[in-house]
Amino acid sequence: MATDRVVLQHAEVGNGCCEKGPGYATPLEAMSGPRETLIYVTCIYTGTGKEKPDYLATVDIDPNSPTYSKVIHRLPMPYLGDELHHSGWNSCSSCHGDPSAARRYLVLPSLVSGRIYAVDTQKDPKAPSLHKVVDPKDVIQKTGLAYPHTAHCLASGEIMVSCLGDKDGNAEGNGFLLLDSDFNVKGRWEKPGNSPLYGYDFWYQPRHKTMISTSWGAPAAFTKGFNLQHVSDGLYGRHLHVYSWPGGELKQTLDLGNTGLLPLEIRFLHDPTKDTGFVGCALTSNMVRFFKKPDETWGHELSISVKPLKVQNWILPEMPGLITDFLISLDDRFLYLANWLHGDIRQYNIEDPANPQLVGQVWVGGSVRKGSAVVVEAEDGTTHQIDVPDVQGHGLRGGPQMIQLSLDGTRLYVTNSLFSTWDRQFYPELVEKGGHMLQIDVDTEKGGLEINPRFFVDFGAEPDGPSLAHEMRYPGGDCTSDIWI
């Protein structure tokens, strides 16, 4: 193993603002930014049986454009087998104030291959171009890290990427990779000996000198598909890891217990003065709120619970909602979550973060929609299925997975691929016929969600065959990539 890790580099996060930082002074100012007209979508062929590279799609989301809701450009990656997944920016609102700054490079970690791509979106926003490839061999040699997932820009101009394991897929090898502003490997962010057992997503809140990360599972387990026995075997996580920021010292581990299995996405409230946030626990389908206590340690409580459905003709007698993504509006008024298996998106009012109120719900697919073999069994023994509408003559495949909200909070975009191996396991039709993207109209006064009938992007009709659509980013930043300091 020593030959695999020639140098285990550790890097300090720099001080000051980066030279390339755009964005907005505050989250509320961002809400008044221009309406989105383009969105970048990571699209996957890896794991679908097609020998084609994954690609970044540019979708026209300007309702006044003749190519509205169409893919107008595709940037294929130069290699096969990447599994593009999440994405981030080289700089964001954490660097607001530099007039020479630019949110120029979209950072695309490849969950399976370990490559990290930097894509230039500034030369031609409608047709991004490949700028640089970070070689996974370089990352492994200098840090021992593999399976990169979440990328966040830092106020120093560096980029931090969570990595879920070592090159063999062992969870014990996870940690945080630091890249400099030119995408060179600097080393690991966390201090030596401060790596938790599992990793996944992370969010930092500088005014509280804290970063918190979550824990999916061992890559050697989840890349093979979901096996419930692997949960019992301890191959999946249930913890939050609290670090000093920017120091990288693991200060506290929060055990979420059996109600907090597979904590995935994590978000602090956008207001940088706030010391609370939420994490979505996929398998148990609970939202957990975390918060700072008077003694400066962190606590947590169950905040929202999605009840499992009693079902027939499924792999288990009960089906969890499987909360796979959620986000918070920039004014911290609403929380939106996606139940990938059940098939609904929910809107909660969180103006009182300790007391969320369900104010909107819409069904956009799922395992219990009409036409599926799976039926829901009520307490009296009767059965039913959910009536899900077609959009522009298309039946909705799979379930809602990644979501992205417009800056003003009135439009929610939805894709339906989770991870190619899991897509094939739970929604084989999705792999066969391809993913799609929807837009949901949001009532931000009283609450409410409604499918926009004018918008449907069919990734089943791509030139190289059906692909899977995952994360979405606007050129101008959004509520799941920007952090304020």
From TrEMBL:
Catalysed transformations (reactions): methanethiol + O2 + H2O = hydrogen sulfide + formaldehyde + H2O2 + H(+)
One Pfam family here: SBP56
EC number: 1.8.3.4
GO molecular-function terms, A-Z: methanethiol oxidase activity; selenium binding
Keywords: Selenium
Pathway where it operates: Organosulfur degradation
Keyword Secreted belongs to the record: no
UniProt-listed InterPro entries: Se-bd, WD40/YVTN_repeat-like_dom_sf
PANTHER family: METHANETHIOL OXIDASE
Family membership: Belongs to the selenium-binding protein family.
Name used for this protein in its record: Methanethiol oxidase
